[in-house]
Each structure stands twice: as C-alpha cells, then as structure tokens.
Write a structure and sequence with these properties.
- The strands form 4 sheets. A 5-stranded mixed sheet has the order 2-1-3-10-4, with helices on both faces. A 5-stranded mixed sheet has the order 7-6-8-5-9. A 4-stranded antiparallel sheet has the order 12-11-13-14, sandwiched between helices.
- The two termini are about 20 Å apart.
- By secondary structure, it is of the alpha+beta class.
- About 40% of the residues lie in helices and about 20% in strands.
- The protein has 3 domains: about 250 residues, D-Maltodextrin-Binding Protein, domain 2 (3-Layer(aba) Sandwich), CATH 3.40.190; about 100 residues, D-Maltodextrin-Binding Protein, domain 2 (3-Layer(aba) Sandwich), CATH 3.40.190; about 90 residues, no CATH class.
- α1 runs antiparallel to α7 and α5 crosses α13.
- A hairpin with a 5-residue loop joins β15 and β16.
- Part of a binding-protein-dependent transport system for aliphatic sulfonates. Putative binding protein.
- It holds the Pfam family NMT1.
- It comes from Acinetobacter gerneri DSM 14967 = CIP 107464 = MTCC 9824.
- Keywords: Signal, Transport.
Length: about 475
C-alpha cells in the first residue's frame, strides 16, 4: 500500500505552483490590470486569489474555475447595459496582493487574519480604507496552523525544542501561534529558542535536509509536508485554543460604489461553499489540479469532519482573532496598535448575500459544527452514527472516500483492499481527544482494556491514554495487525 503516491518535493511543487499561478490566474481576457472603472458601461471586478492557500478556495479558485461570479452579477437597474471586466490574479501570499489593492489594481482579495490587518494598515497609510467582508474558512480553536519537525527527528513535543532553531513565515498567523507557544513554555527569545524567518518553499527543503529543528506554518503546509513524507506534525494550532481564519477583503470605496457587485461575489462564495460540501472529493481534486496541492491534503481541510470549517459568518472568535492579529503585529512593530477592528470588520454585505441566497445568517452564525459526515459504514453498510473513531480510506481509482465508524472496521476492510490488489491514496483518522482529522500513517494508536482502538496525533497523548486505560500504543502498521 502506498501512502504517498506521486510524491514531489515541496520546492519542485512550489516553483511549479508559482509559475502555474501566473499563467492560469490571469488569462488573456483578464490581462488588462488597469481597466477603467470610470466608463459607465464597464465595471471592473478585479479579484486577487491565493490558490495554494486552499482555505481561500471558496472565495477565489472555485468561483473562477466554475464561472460562478457571472451567475450573480447584477444585470438590471443601473447595471442593465453594463459590461463586466472580470479580472483574476493569483498570489502565493497576502503582502503582494495587498500592494495591488492599495494601488487600485484589485478590488477584492482573500487572505488570513494577520495579512488582513496589514492590509488595513497599508490602506490607512495611503489615506484609504479596506473592509473585512467575511470569513471563508477557519477554526475557532486554531487548527490549521501547525509546527512540524523533520520526519526522522527524535523530537515529539514542544518542550523538546528548547535551545533549538524554529523557522516560520514572519508576520503570519503561524508566527503568532509560535510566539504564543514560546510564551506558554516560559521561554525567552534568542536565549531559550531561536526563531528565524523562512517561507514554506525554503522550509520544505530545510526540513528534508535536517537544517532546522522545526518549522511553524499555516494552511496547508503543516499537512502538506507531512503528506509528502518530509516532516511530522508535533503541534496542531487547536492545542493553543486561539482562533484563526482566512477571509475576503474589499476596498471600501469600491464596496460603496458597487454594493451589488460585492453582494454577487459573496453569493458566488456561498454557492462554492455549498458545492464543495456536497461533493468534497470532486472539488478537492479540482483544487489539486489547479494548485498542485494533493487532493488528499485538500480533503483533510475541506472534507467532512475536516481540520477547519468553511464558515462565512462573523463569529465572535473570528472577531477576536482579528484583534489578536492587531496586538501581535504591534509587538512585531507592524502597527501602532491604534486600530479598531470593528471599523474594519463589516457583516453588512455577507448578511445581504445570505438573504439573497435564501439562507438564515443567524442560524449559520450559531452553528459551530464541522462539515457533517453523512455516510454508511463501508464495512457494515449501516449508517454511521458516532464520530469519535471515524476512519476513512481513499482507494486509488475510486471517486468517493470510504468511511467507517471505527478503526477496526476500516482496518478489516483495508486487508480486503490489499488482498484485491488495490492501492490506497490515503487513510484518515480522527484524533480521539481534539477531534482533528489526521493522516493515519503518521498517527499513534492506543487501546484500552477492551481492545478498542483510539487514534492520536501525539505519541505522548497516546501513551497517557494507554497508561490510564490499561492499554498499549501502536504505530499505524502495528495497529492494523490488531484486527484479525
């Protein structure tokens, strides 16, 4: 069974992504970045995406690839005879996207909470204002950001990193996470721990060659490095209980001039969200085809019970995450801290889009559930009703991921899959304590005195569980042998 089909090094992947993003993000019909918005017959809709930051998919890539925007753009009233000049431009980070927005070459963009605050500051310095329209995808507990170590490292916990060098993309959400972890450990920067700036395309090869002890990063790199077999995740952002998310931003001037266009963009976002929830495998593969990020990694986030939820509403946790970004970036000297996030965040446009899409915003605002798993156990054929032990197998050549209510059912079926000469693309488990989705081949499994199998991200958690429940700890291969 191959856990890592079509393996690529991150450097090769990332260079390919950057080139592909330039070539496909702006096709010939969208090449004019300076189209006039003063012509009454032409309205520019220039959108900056971050395709490889897969959290942004429902606010960019899927809308673009499925041509959803044109479906909702207004075509009556003052827009009756309008010609829309729709432009797309892809970026690998938020900073250059912000520069294009401030220069009035983009109207809408997608980025994480930390870059979004930098966007606000950049607009203010230019005498302008941007608005944070809505979240796209995130975690109220912080899952998505992660800290990884080289695959064969002997380090299994944060405490063991004392005295080591950790790299991180500076001024990112992952940087904020890392600073909180350092504070929680009681460490002093440059004394107990050294933090260096490193972009993911550099960190991947550094991890592979053991040049750094650990790396902290944002979606999807913690999982991508693990999937590629060059790193292991030893800390998930959910352990910090600090919310994080990606969302959509618009120039305030543009929103006030074209509120119906902004609403149309958000309606397209809502449909993209609905589509990926209904067919996560199909659209995970589409995202993979356009970005080079493996569909197996995309599904980790966007599939049912995924690492993060696609949440379009302004939950208090996401408002707090934005304020946390302000406070952390102030500490890093990126702003003066005199920022009122309530003037930056607006729920006006997303509420209007919900209404236009015949959805209940208040109901969604109060919904903290993950994308639900509605499936029959592929081994027993019975509906899955409990989710603490859910295990999933994506068989090579199959369109749908197989789901199982327990690890035991999955491992029994896995033996049959092998006997039939089939290969698996990936196996997923749910962490028994944090309920985050895991790559099973990198998870730890513990039994209790009854022999029931639980999955864990961290070996220490598995060992503690086994010790308190008269059980034992196993790696993925050994755990499979428990099922006869």
């Amino acid at each position: 069974m191959s856990q890592f089909p079509h393996k690529k090094t991150l450097l090769t992947t990332f260079i390919g992504l950057a080139f592909a993003g330039v070539m496909t993000g702006c096709d010939s019909k969208n090449a004019d970045k300076t189209a006039s918005t003063t012509d009454a017959k032409t309205v520019r809709v220039a959108i900056g995406t971050q395709d490889t930051t897969i959290n942004c998919a429902t606010g960019g890539l899927l809308i673009r690839e499925l041509n959803l925007l044109d479906k909702y753009l207004p075509k009556d009233g003052q827009y009756k005879n309008v010609k829309y000049d729709i432009q797309w431009k892809n970026f690998t980070s938020g900073a250059p996207l912000t520069s294009e927005m401030v220069a009035d070459r983009l109207d809408i963009g997608a980025m994480a909470d930390f870059p979004a605050v930098n966007n606000l500051v950049a607009f203010q310095k230019a005498g302008k204002q941007s608005l944070f329209l809505n979240p796209l995808s995130g975690s109220t507990t912080g899952s998505g950001n992660a800290i990884v170590v080289p695959k064969d490292s002997k380090i299994n916990s944060i405490a063991e990193l004392k005295g080591q060098t950790i790299s991180v993309p500076f001024a990112s959400t992952a940087h904020g996470l890392l600073l909180r972890v350092v504070k929680e450990q009681g460490w002093t920067l440059d004394k107990d721990i050294k933090i260096i700036a490193q972009a993911p395309e550099v960190a991947g090869p550094a991890l592979k060659s053991n040049k750094i002890a650990a790396h902290a990063d944002f979606v999807p790199f913690g999982e991508l490095f693990a999937y590629q077999g060059i790193a292991r995740k030893i800390y998930d952002g959910s352990q910090a209980k600090a919310p994080t998310f990606h969302g959509s931003i618009v120039s305030k001037d543009y929103a006030e001039k074209h509120p119906e266009v902004v609403k149309a963009y958000l309606q397209a976002t809502i449909e993209a969200d609905q589509l990926i929830q209904k067919e996560p495998e199909k659209y995970s593969q589409l995202i993979a085809d356009k970005t080079g990020i493996p569909a197996e990694v995309v599904y980790l986030f966007h599939g049912p019970l995924g690492l993060q939820t696609r949440d379009l509403t302004w939950k208090p946790e996401y408002r707090q995450a934005t304020q946390t970004a302000v406070d952390t970036l102030k500490m890093l000297g990126k702003n003066d801290g005199k920022i009122d996030v309530n003037h930056f965040i607006t729920d006006q446009y997303i509420k209007e889009a919900f209404t236009a899409s015949h959805l209940d915003y208040s109901k969604s605002l109060n919904n903290y559930g993950k994308s639900p798993l509605v499936a029959n156990d592929a081994f027993t054929g019975k509906p899955i009703q409990t989710f603490k032990h859910v295990t999933q197998i994506w068989v090579k050549g199959e369109d749908k991921v197989r789901s199982y209510e327990t690890a035991e059912h999955a491992f029994q079926d896995l033996k049959k899959i092998k006997q039939a000469g089939k290969q698996t693309r990936v196996v997923y488990s749910q962490d028994f304590q944090s309920d985050i989705k895991l790559l099973s081949n990198l998870a730890w499994f513990a039994t209790d005195k009854t022999g029931q199998i639980q999955a864990f991200l961290l070996k220490n958690d598995a060992e503690q569980w086994a010790k308190s429940h008269a059980g034992k700890v196993y790696d993925f291969n050994a755990a499979q042998q428990l099922v006869k």
